[in-house]
Amino acid sequence: QVQLVESGGGLVQPGGSLRLSCAASGSSASINAMGWYRQAPGKQRELVAAITTDGSTEYADSVKGRVTISRDNAKNTVYLQMNSLKPEDTAVYYCNAKIMSGRWKQYTYDYWGQGTQVTVSS
User: Fold this and answer.
1) In degrees to the nearest 10, what's the CA dihedral of 87, 118, 98, 79?
2) What is the pLDDT of residues 42-62, one digit of tens each?
3) Ordered strands of the 2-7 beta sheet
4) What per-residue confidence (pLDDT) applies to 68?
5) In this predicted model, what pLDDT tens digit does every residue of 69-120 receive, in sequence order?
6) Residue 81 burial (CB < 10 Å; 0-12/13-18/19+)?
7) Rg (Cα) of the chain, in Å, rounded?
8) For position 76, what pLDDT does the model report?
9) How far is the first Cα of the chain from the last one, in angstroms, to the nearest whole number?
């Protein structure tokens, strides 16, 4: 199994920056992709950014150009650098890890962190 521990959330003013960290432990060597999702009150959970083992990245249109996802394989950690934060970025941010398994990698297992609150307000 995989355990994910997030850190770095908090209160920041509009235009400010935060860096979220997600440290993976357990069967972290088998992780195929990691990403960050967020969920604001009254809204569904949405993908913010994701990164695969080969370094490919994906970003939501709403954050593209303002956030960067990166990884440190030696530390089994993924980061989300967020700049130029807006009030609409306020949400609980969840770290996600995906593991593909089975003979043909036909099964996808999702692991989630506990979530970290990001509040953008003046």
Assistant:
1) 100
2) 999 999 999 998 899 999 999
3) 2-7, 18-26, 77-82, 67-72
4) 98
5) 999 988 889 999 999 999 999 999 999 999 998 899 899 999 999 999 999 9
6) middle
7) 14
8) 86
9) 40
Residue type for position 72:
D
Distances (CA, A) of 114 to 16, 57, 61, 86, 105: 24, 23, 25, 23, 26
Q: If pLDDT is split at 50, 70 and 90, which confidence band does 16 have?
A: very high
Q: Are 16 and 121 in contact (CB under 8 A)?
A: no
* Beta pairing class for 46-52 and 33-39: antiparallel
CA dihedral 44, 106, 3, 67 (to 10 degrees): -50
Q: What is the token pair recorded at 106?
A: 């036909």
73 DSSP 8-state letter: G
Residue 66 has pLDDT above 80, yes or no: yes
Q: Can you tell me the distance from the alpha carbon of 7 to that of 91, in angstroms, rounded to the nearest whole number? A: 14
